[in-house]
Amino acid sequence: MFSRLIVTSLLAASLAACNGQGTDGSGPLGPDDLGNTIGDAIGDVIGGKGGSGGVPTSPTPTPSEPKPAEPTTPEDPAVLRYVATDGNDGNPGTKELPWRTPGHAVRQAQPGMKILLRGGTYGPFTIDAVDGTAEAPIVLAAAPGSRPVISGGTVLVRRAHWQLEGLEVRPGANAGVRFTGSGAHHGVLRGSIVRDGSAAYGVSVDLGANRITIEGNEIMNIWRGADVDAHGIVIQPDAVGVKILGNEIHGNSGDSVQCIGPNQDAPAGAPARDLLIEGNLFYGDRENAVDIKWCEGVVIRGNVARGYRKSATSNGEAIVIHRGARNVVVERNDISEASRGVVTGVGANEIVVRRNVIHRPVDEKVGIIFGEGSSQVARHNTIVGASRGVNVLAEARGVTVRNNIFSGCSQSVTGSATIDSNLFFGSPSAGSGAVTGDPQLDAEFKPAAGSAAIDRAVPGDEAEVCGTAPDFGAIERC
Ligand SMILES: [Ca+2]
Ligand SMILES: [Ca+2]
User: Fold this and answer.
1) Is 413 contained in some domain?
2) Which one of the ligands is nearest to 323 CA?
3) Residue 206 has pLDDT above 90, yes or no
4) Domain membership of residue 377 as a residue range
5) CATH number, domain at 277?
6) Alpha carbons 134 and 113: distance in angstroms, whole number
7) Which ligand lies nearest to the CA atom of residue 19 in the structure?
8) Ligand 1 centroid distance, CA of 391 (Å)
9) Total number of domains in the chain
10) Which ligand is closest to the CA of 449, given by its number?
11) pLDDT (tens digit per residue) in 24-59
């Protein structure tokens, strides 16, 4: 993750297409039986607290879920099996006599087995024969020093406790990796690359798959054309307990991550819920970094989102929350070079936008837009250089704007909201309890000693406080 921090300008020329807050759709799923959600949620991700910085923190998996056990000693030859392009499926799958195809290997798997793919190119495969267990997951991984490529189709996971590691998936016209159906739970996709697909998404959690972790991957160039969206990761109805941690996702013709509902061409089902999107780097997608529709119980924390420009058909939102999404926390993200930093829209309810840094805006240069929805809060954000810091649309309800820093904004807050206790510097003041002064922010948006931000915000935020009172803005000086 974060191995390549350079924003590509590759896509800038082709920014033309649908959506933003509007009408994008994800393609329908392939044929599949509709699964049921299993079990309950992954615990109270909403209540969690992030790190102390405004930039990505280390991923902090929800503590309520036990970490899957490592398989028995990975070096233990008894659990190791091998696949090689010069192997044979009639072999025993040993180091000396490897199998030929991943599809054969996964049918032979047993709990605790570790299947190692040597370098070379393999065809797609489906995992549908054997479950791992919590104590003994099944690992399918690149052999040490190897880069196996799965080409021309989908890696389809229908079973539980499978961990895919170190693969490079080049799916062509197909989805890259799908965790699908209620039998697919506690799956992991880690340290892998999914790239150059032209289907609706690179990675999908769908049809009731649950408790899936997508961690430390690079997902890129999922592209259906200059005016058709395709996404790095989609979370579909009935998904529960999905964690998207520390990935680098970029250059897709839609969003890096989208949570979708049936009104976006996904199959019917319950809203996806309990999602944690943390510590990722998103950049240069044609639409949005994160697009949350209809889903419930979402935490978007400690991500970097950069390079979301306006075009003829996109408003260039880094993060957009709309279409019935509820109970969404957007916190400690670093958002830059976006036309609109964080936007809510139709049916967004119980939305908290806190401790984000929104800076170096482009195009419309709007920090936060609250649209049609209710119970929406912006607090402790640092918004720098915006044309409008927070824009509250006429149809927005229940908006509170508190403890933020507005620095160098042409307009600070527009529209109707409860506005109190904010710091304004080079920006028109608004609301009650306004403080004017230089926050003296350093390169990491932390107030320097003597800053007007220090200890002058109103208490009540649940984040850690240093000194005698909270500081204005995203980052407390401690
Ligand atoms: Ca979108
Ligand atoms: Ca303080």
Assistant:
1) yes
2) 1
3) yes
4) 18-69+119-436
5) 2.160.20
6) 13
7) 1
8) 20
9) 1
10) 2
11) 333 333 323 222 222 222 222 222 333 333 333 343
